Amino acid sequence: MKKFVLPNLYFGGDYTPEHFPREVMLEDMRLMKKAGVNIVTINVFSWAQLQPNEDTWTFEWLDDIMDTLAKNGIFADLGTATASTPAWMAKKYPEILPVDANGIRYNHGSRQTFNPNSPKYRELSHILVRTIAERYQKHPALAMWHVNNELSQLVNYDYSEITARKFRDWCKDRFGTCENMNRKWGLHFWGNNIYEWDELMPPMKTAHQVNTSLLLDWKRFTNECYMEVAREEIKILREITPDIPITTNFLYEFKMLDYFAWADLIDFISVSSFPDPKITNHPGEAALSHDIMRGLKDQPFVLLEQAPSQVNWRLANVNKKPGVMRLWSHQGMAHGSDSFLFFQWRASVHGSEKFHSAMVPHIGENSRVFREMCQFGNELPGLKEVVGADVQAEVAIVMDYNNWWTVEFTPGPTALLDYLQMLKDYHYPLFEQNITTDIVPCDRDLNRYKVVIAPLLYMVKPGFKESVEKFVSEGGTFITTFFSGAVNEFDEVFEGGYPGPLSDLMGLKVEEFEAMKPYVNNSLVMNGTLEELTGEFESRLWCDILQLGTAQPLAVYGSDFFKGTPALTVNEFGKGKAYYVATMPEHGFLRNFLKKVCADQGVSPVVEAPDNVEAVVRSKDGEPFLFVMNHNYEAVEVTLPEGTYIDLLTQEKLTGTISMESVQSVILKKV
Amino acid sequence: MKKFVLPNLYFGGDYTPEHFPREVMLEDMRLMKKAGVNIVTINVFSWAQLQPNEDTWTFEWLDDIMDTLAKNGIFADLGTATASTPAWMAKKYPEILPVDANGIRYNHGSRQTFNPNSPKYRELSHILVRTIAERYQKHPALAMWHVNNELSQLVNYDYSEITARKFRDWCKDRFGTCENMNRKWGLHFWGNNIYEWDELMPPMKTAHQVNTSLLLDWKRFTNECYMEVAREEIKILREITPDIPITTNFLYEFKMLDYFAWADLIDFISVSSFPDPKITNHPGEAALSHDIMRGLKDQPFVLLEQAPSQVNWRLANVNKKPGVMRLWSHQGMAHGSDSFLFFQWRASVHGSEKFHSAMVPHIGENSRVFREMCQFGNELPGLKEVVGADVQAEVAIVMDYNNWWTVEFTPGPTALLDYLQMLKDYHYPLFEQNITTDIVPCDRDLNRYKVVIAPLLYMVKPGFKESVEKFVSEGGTFITTFFSGAVNEFDEVFEGGYPGPLSDLMGLKVEEFEAMKPYVNNSLVMNGTLEELTGEFESRLWCDILQLGTAQPLAVYGSDFFKGTPALTVNEFGKGKAYYVATMPEHGFLRNFLKKVCADQGVSPVVEAPDNVEAVVRSKDGEPFLFVMNHNYEAVEVTLPEGTYIDLLTQEKLTGTISMESVQSVILKKV
Amino acid sequence: MKKFVLPNLYFGGDYTPEHFPREVMLEDMRLMKKAGVNIVTINVFSWAQLQPNEDTWTFEWLDDIMDTLAKNGIFADLGTATASTPAWMAKKYPEILPVDANGIRYNHGSRQTFNPNSPKYRELSHILVRTIAERYQKHPALAMWHVNNELSQLVNYDYSEITARKFRDWCKDRFGTCENMNRKWGLHFWGNNIYEWDELMPPMKTAHQVNTSLLLDWKRFTNECYMEVAREEIKILREITPDIPITTNFLYEFKMLDYFAWADLIDFISVSSFPDPKITNHPGEAALSHDIMRGLKDQPFVLLEQAPSQVNWRLANVNKKPGVMRLWSHQGMAHGSDSFLFFQWRASVHGSEKFHSAMVPHIGENSRVFREMCQFGNELPGLKEVVGADVQAEVAIVMDYNNWWTVEFTPGPTALLDYLQMLKDYHYPLFEQNITTDIVPCDRDLNRYKVVIAPLLYMVKPGFKESVEKFVSEGGTFITTFFSGAVNEFDEVFEGGYPGPLSDLMGLKVEEFEAMKPYVNNSLVMNGTLEELTGEFESRLWCDILQLGTAQPLAVYGSDFFKGTPALTVNEFGKGKAYYVATMPEHGFLRNFLKKVCADQGVSPVVEAPDNVEAVVRSKDGEPFLFVMNHNYEAVEVTLPEGTYIDLLTQEKLTGTISMESVQSVILKKV
């Protein structure tokens, strides 16, 4: 993938001056300059304002905004305005409205209420995108395109007849014949065989569970439908403005779309990032989000939406405490974000989000939140040289959206499986020890890493076996867990015992599994092979009962009828090692186990620091930038690695042990 | 508002003799006389019995009931029978059936299953009401009209195309142009602008949240539709029986209707009152309900439905223990109820409510419940002179249904906001200290009170600023809380900081707010200005962070980053004071704080009594009636205010300290 | 009822070789022989495979399976394949799809998605059943017919217009006139009277509760509709294969169907039995299920589906520990099961149930689960002589599905009533003491028992009063509880006080009842009359407040206003006694109380054994078989009744005290 580097270190927010009297926009220009804002996202939801009916266009207000921005030296992340359809369209063309699994049609009245497969939605949105692109292609304010918005988030699936027909065609393309599809999906189960394509139904309301392979392909299909929506907008934009970079904003915590598949579509990844600012929040959550976003293209990305302070959609919404907005933005940069935009510039006075925080709150300029924005924005230019630098990681965690989908669609063995939580369970222990992690898809080259972890890899796709066997045989360390290697890419079980194609590598087979009730534990009793890790550790959620081939046990279960049988194993494979974790160990165990496994491969922490002090290195042209971030709400002492550093924001020289205030961050360059 | 006084102190219940063999009715007459019953509510749900098809009327059975009642000296609260539509109507005119937000039409088979806006429902119900009114206009049993029943309770909204069209017309009347509506509602947010009226949709199923101003006006519109249903029935009744008083029964604990707007429609307010008789229930709950009902017209009202013992619709339904039915009825009278009816006279043997208690239980006359009814009914005439007396209150709490609706529709800042609970939070501490409270709407004259409290007054309507500023400047004390003065009557935020129009009066602005997670606390640390209140008190739910103007701090926060900033303030304004409570303090604090504020204004308890002993004064022509009610399930001693009293029920003379049995009440007149 | 005895002691499982390559079937034959399998259930869901479109039949694959089975000496429990409709049928005849209470039609895509009343479904399913029956009528593999599958479980009700019309006809047949129905159902309540049959609606979405008598008859009607589905299939089968026994599988824990009404339809009862194998599960749960199934025809039955180890549909699914599958199968036999089939033979690789356990797991033959199956299957022939033996019980519990339905449909007095739990509450204490219990319907002859218990007999049907009065007057002991005798078979309350027709027998009336809040207790204070039971015992859920006639109190309440009034009574009636338990006592009380009541009647435990050791006797031709089962997960000592026994599985001779391993069972014959 060609590396894309932003031409600028952008700072700004979502902006809707058209919701206010015009004089407010002029006041905004003053405040933006005061805060150091150099970009705003506009035009995301304004289709109805641009096109009050099918035959009328009203671009004057948008021209005015673009011109005002340009006059004030501020760039636009220009939305394609396709994220919210006008009311007249729903009335004139009801087909643009999505349909739910009960067959009930949605109504106009919110946002994203469109059927992604409606030909009329496509046609009208293309006219809109082309019109906007042609109008502003040469405009000096135009910095980047913002395609649609958080696609599929609110309409996860459409079940209209339009989409059903398209799904049938998609399946026909994929399988050729009904018979082949019946076989690959196992539709003979419960006699759901199809003999004519028009017998195939999307997974709508029916008496009991729908075939899991169908659900998986329905999800893949829907992902592709939404990709098509984006691709077609992008095609128009590239034709008219080949040099303007294009993005669309992702959301890390949901599984609706396969973002790895999306990565090639756009020039750079951007994300809406809203961790809960309650003080008990784990700082690894944002780190994991950032690592995923960076991993999608294996490149820097952009934090396109953060909250200046609180959001409005949690049960109860707490503020970002003083300094946290700055700390979390710096954390974003440490993990690869090269620009910082916030939702929203000015607090709205109408609608659903009027109590979502804004860079300019309802009370206005004289406010903590705006003051912090000014500080952050004005010191940001000092970090410009970091833009484009690479994050340094020797450990990778495999993440696969198809796997996420299907392992959670499957009825049983336990509804307590949570793939994202499993990723966190393996990511956080590394994060806490300042071992930086890349997130990689199944088909990425693993050989640049020293340690690769694939938690809960239920689905093993073609090619992964070969890739990971090569990686281990050449000296890498691989870790996988229970309920891995169970099914292929069609959700067909590998017969003969899990982990199926990974059995040779892991040196074992799973004879049976036990899904544990909530609050029931088992334990790992270490057998002394790993000197660093002795004693007994709690485990929960699941126990695989193993038949070992070439694998050696490192721990056995402490209870239940399989007490004394292997719970953790290692298999020597070529020059490397493959570990199998057959249950879900307690957090403390994983911290020490992963530390040991990393140390064996020569992977060590970026900085040995107190709890909740994070350290990450980005480097560019061989020059490292050291980010040190104190996530504690109290001051700590941190000993820097040997050398003398310059603080990019203060130009101060630092060496040895430094004092860090509560939620302080420093970004250092070695001198 | 002209004062209406009932001609009688009524006692009775809901009555459906047509569900039993005729001989049971004759037995009922004997039992009613034994119990002292002088009124029954009849004909509420009997449309289908009166009109078996569109062309046939069968009034004979109702004539028989009316005649039998008259012959036995019992009056009728005569229902208009419009609360339940006949099955033939649903079949013949499906338009009378309501439609839900998914577009799914309801079916016949329960009660209240009608579309309030159906022209056919209106037409047929008017024929029915006119027929009944004409038939019984001169009937000696006719004492009052009971219009429909608990309107809107079961069909909160109708989303039929009939109603959608009406809503569009309503909006057109309200806003004149789409553009004006777009602007006032802020429909530009998420691009939901409307350019033609028929583009406007009721808030039906859509992909995400609907505009909050639209929701508010949709609620107002629906309230008006139901008012129209009642008004049209009333118009017919007034035309035919101008001298017969009219009511319809309300429910205090729901926010479906704006009862202040309804108050003028009817001659007197009546209510269905069903507090949970579990012994842990707070006796303030019923008191608040009664205070609201009295406040609607600022006049006495009627307890039109109480349960003789248990209801049947809670998770588990406990009995009213011996004496509680009498105690709670006397409590109702203390707060303004001038008659007492129960649901239901005789336990039904069919249908949904057969295990709801009745004055005559399934076992019949030989039962505790019936014996208690006889005692209560036979002593009731002793209280006749109380009818029409006014409740004495110097403190008022502002209640506003529009505010209730919109503060709970708003997504964020926290879903934990509960307006009714906030009213309780301020009402109960006063109740517990025997400081009687009126409940008043925003537009009532405040100057007759010494203390006015407006909890969570999120919406400030035009005129309230002037009214409350006048009240305070002339010497009154005003208290409001966090998240007040945030929006105007269109749900548009007041820019420049909350509490918006109340900022001058309160002498402060809100810089930011923090919605607290469940189980997270902050505290108020008193700064010594209020001598009576020192120390630290827990607070929860919310913290406003304030910028003080002329206000003086009385307490500061005890923790979080805004520790030490004001949490409770007072502002001298003219001759009065305005207090701002920026967080939700613990109950004990509010008790003491409100006591102190009242004492400063010379407002003192009716009686200083032990816990859970309530005292209220009603007075008529200068003569006070003192109600003392022991809500404890054990005996207590109560010291009466100076003087000698006569117990209206026993004619005993009382003075000084009296003993009160468990759940005993006394109603006293000074001699 | 004529007694049916299976010709064989069958062992096997659900089998779908058509989902695998043909060579797997040949391997299966080897494994089945190894395990001792002699029957498989096939063809349950394979309609779509047999009939790919309306004009085409493809029986070759099923011929092959049947022939292969026959060749290998394995019998077929042959499904009629009507449990899952083909996709083409839904497309061609949408009427076969059921409709929900909102009027939304289901879609094809799962199983059991058919409208039981669709004439087209009936027609096509009859063609199918006839075709299968004619084809295999003489086939040597055919051992029994498996009609449809777990009928109604997934489509509890159909609300299509087809069914609505049929329901109207059913009501017309039942009531003759609308007026009669109005009266019996009490449709005058809330004015829901019907004057023409087509005004009657099934209980679809409406504004509030639907008439409870209508709900009850709607349930009865639906039960009959599903019976009709089965009866029509059975009629065809009996016509073509008069000598082949017929069954269909039931599910004990649901109340969808009235299985007592079904019992006559089929030759023997079979059941899908899936107790949760977590170690805290009460072994009485399976015992109750088995006792119900045996009680349906008062004959042995068949465990047609058990799980070899875990299922896949609980929140988290644990394994059957080693030995438990065998223990639970032996428990099934102890209670009357004469054959043992498992779901499923070979673990599927597709669809919803791929992580449900199988006799042959994914890993294959070399597995604990398969080894246990081999052990169990190979020792099973030793138990052949038990087949057809009767279970010996002197105590009966009355169970009535109509009662179950209606007591839980009724709004109030408390939603905490759970009829099945009440049956358990009275069954488990007997089970724990090895007092074997029959489950009987209301209309079975009670006089063969010594003690009859009817918990929560809300509905008393015609004839029961006479039956139970005869039983008691002749010396029997009867026990019933609170909220019994409240309504008749139309759900009409018996006026004059519960327990209505049982009042004479019980010698009391219920004056009022108190439904208790969760976590609130009262108590029974014994008055000394029962010497064995003194002291105070907790009670919960409900308290009836009684007026005693001839009954004598045994215990009084310990608290609340009815403290000191009777909570437990006995009435001498003829030669027998009738006990009334007016509240829900704690488990320990019921254990001792039931023990005492049984002892008074000379009913004693089969074996006095340690906790969780179960003993049951079946006998044939006067010869008893003693089943002793250790449900503990540890070894115990058990003292056998006097005599010498032979262990049918080991041929070992046993006498006196024996050691039983964890989860061990022995089946003994006296020598």
From TrEMBL, chains A, B, C:
Domain of life according to the entry: Bacteria
Annotated Glycoside hydrolase family 42 N-terminal domain residues: 14-380
Active site (UniProt): E150 (proton donor), E305 (nucleophile)
Hydrolase keyword on record: yes
E.C. number: 3.2.1.23
Gene Ontology terms: cellular component: beta-galactosidase complex
Domain Beta-galactosidase C-terminal span(s) in chain numbering: 613-669
UniProt-recorded Gene Ontology molecular function terms: beta-galactosidase activity
Occurrences of domain Beta-galactosidase trimerisation (ranges): 393-603
Keyword Hydrolase: yes
Alphabetical UniProt keywords: Glycosidase, Hydrolase
Binding-site list for substrate: R111, N149, W313
A Gene Ontology biological process term: galactose metabolic process
Catalysed reactions listed for this entry: Hydrolysis of terminal non-reducing beta-D-galactose residues in beta-D-galactosides
Pfam family, one: Glyco_hydro_42C
Family: Belongs to the glycosyl hydrolase 42 family.
Protein name as annotated: Beta-galactosidase
